[in-house]
Design goal:
Keywords: Membrane, Transmembrane, Transmembrane helix. It comes from Chryseobacterium kimseyorum. This is Glycosyltransferase RgtA/B/C/D-like domain-containing protein. By secondary structure, the chain is mostly helical. Helices cover about 60% and strands about 5% of the residues. Strand 2 and strand 3 form a beta hairpin. The longest helix has 26 residues. It is globular and about 70 Å long.
Length: about 450
Amino acid sequence: MKKYKIAAMIIVLIYFFQTFFTSLGGIGADSLSYFGIAADLPKPETNLFPMGYPILVRLVYNVLHDYFWASKILNLLFTVIILLFSYYKKFYFRETVLLFMGKTFFTVFIGAASETLFLFLMYFLFFFFHQLLSKKDNLYSYAVAISLCLIGFFITRYSGIYIYVSVAVFCGVMFFKIRDKIYFKPLILMLFLSGIGIGSYLLFNVMHFGDYTGEHMRGKPSSKDVVYIVRDVFGVMNSIDPYIGIKPASNSLASLLFQFLVFVIDVFIFFFFLKYFKKAKESSLYYFHILLWVMAGVSGISVLVSGWFQQIEEMGVRLMAASNFCLFFSFLILYFQNQLSDKWIWRVSCFFLVFLTCYSLKDPGNYLENKKQIEPQMAKFKNKKYLYNDEKNKITVTTYYFPVIDKKFDYKHTNSQKGSLKEGIAGTVNPKIKWLMNDTVRDKTKVLYTSQLRFK
């Protein structure tokens, strides 16, 4: 157990400091949208994203007066609280540490996005469901706690409705098996209370913004070409993989062959996990594992289908975070219940924690220094209402040389693009300036262009 305690402390340090050594600091386009909503509180101007995460960001910002540091402190708190809770409650501490050594937790908890709160709530959803399905007392208290988690999912990410649906599907599938159990009525109460909470938030959106989930502001799907459908299917299948989440942006033959190779690996991992899932029948937590697999399948497929009708990013680690969490957690619990030694899973996890850390720093930078240069310049643009990256055509390419084969390889790193970097920092320093995807504002004097900002 000592090595897991040490690993937990190392994880906290890596998660906190990693973004300092990148150019973008974990800030993406969605981060700017969340910061913008937080800056508008208590009078939000859009419901494109729900307000759960922005509210927390604003609360911490009121103390620190910096949106970047607000997101960093939230991520730190989420990470530390989960690890401490797991340790002191003796709730699968080894398994929880290994979750943090995988791709999903690593990707999510080093970024500034609502997925951090989403996975935080999901961890406690698992705890309360675990208690409800394995205990015989306080069942209604657990049901209420689960209801609050389900409501929290929806006001954190609208895709949280898929978690609610998956829980409802679980209850429906298991109806004939659990109707005589003492926990059936608590589950019905849980669905009822969370349904009222989610419905109330939708009603608030309609009354305040005129639509349910900002659907009128969402664009059409970027493309329905076969290649993108295949890439999305690969992305959904990759939710089974605990560690490998590399997905080249290129549609070249080499890129697609690499993604197909990862897909084949994912298929083997799926059957490997399935072998352990079958062992759950011998466990007193059989229903709990069924819940996790149903949740993974329903939420994953639902996100995939939703991407065919609205503009969302390609299926990847972030969008498949919930599914991967469910499947990996189920596997880890069953693995430790059926294996006498943890050498294999421990060594693999340590290797990939090091790999993920190094890979995330493959194009290193200094976010705090970049922020320090841009922040003073923003005082000159207080009257600007919009922010636009007009340097998209200025592409920075990193060249890698492989001496063994005497070949050079050029790669466009997102973190190296000056326009995106300036946009991210400017939008973080002053989220009141709304970033634009296209330069459509007629009065150009209201627009802050990234070319007006300078690095030394």
